[in-house]
Amino acid sequence: MDFITLTIEILKLLSVFGGFGVGIILLTILVRVAMWPLGVSQQRSMKTMQQLQPKMKAIQERYKNDPQQMQQKMMEFYKEHKFNPMSGCFPLLIQMPIFILLYSALMSPQFIQMAGDAKFLFINRLDATLKTNAGISNDGILGVSKYDSFILGKTAKVYLDKETLDNVKISKPNKAIEVQGEMVPGEPVDLKVSLDNLDLKFSQLDKIQKAELTVTNMQTKESENVTFTRKNDILTATFPTKELKSQLHYDVLLLIVLFGLTMFLTQKIMMATTQTKNQDPAQAAMQKSMNTFMPIMLTATFIFIPIPAGVLLYLISSNIIQVIQTVVINKQLEKEDEQKKNKIDEDKVAKAKKVENKQ
User: Fold this and answer.
1) CA–CA gap between residue 341 and residue 334 (Å, rounded)
2) Do 92 and 170 lie in a common domain?
3) Are 160 and 239 in the same domain?
């Protein structure tokens, strides 16, 4: 089982609690809970960085004309304070594969066939991007634009001379289907699939009469069940089409705006909880600028890069949970700092009493 199929199976399992939208939110919660220790480490690292910033700046100023010496002194400084400047990046690095997997899963033919038109709250389709064509699956006609491309499902129903085979695996479904000639929206499209793409024995390939395949338009996410008939060493089919025009999905636009707002809130809360009295003013100003610029930049990027609504739902849920997580962890760290301070005070009192006893 590949990772995309595994991700879909996990979403399918979690969806029993209220559909695939709920499944995505539950997956986000599971990921965040699993990353809780890393979240604590990240916030502790950021707080330590702010506290050590003045001393780090002093080292940089002192050895600014000797980069090699400066690097050596900085490494000694990190070792002395048991501080790893890269520890704050680990949670982001771990989230990237999850983001890529979820993106790939929601754009995959398996998910589109199973739940591509799934709705959640105000979201019409979890696989929809900001600007896509609207297509209705299994209505007997493919909605297309001139340069659309197609992909096959992972399995096919194949008819041999004297038997029928279900769930025949298709190798490389994203490359197995081709359009013959030029596609003209509104006119029937000619499709072909090589017999070599069917995972069958050579003796079985020779007996194939026809096959039922799921054809999905990669641009519209519309899926249709198409019957292909054998012609020499290929399977061919002619299927009716209708012309579709691109339209803006306002539900996805709202998700992008919500992502930007929740990310801005996350950055603001994170900055507020990691600020210290000793923080360098220039560093604080630069961090504030970055925390404002990053949400705007990423939000603008998602307008031009097609991100499925389900992935945006994951990112928004992740941001909201991170806000809660940041506040809770910050209170936990403040409690730890208070306990350390009290312990230090107790130790001083104990030492003072010992000195008095000696006298």
Assistant:
1) 10
2) no
3) yes
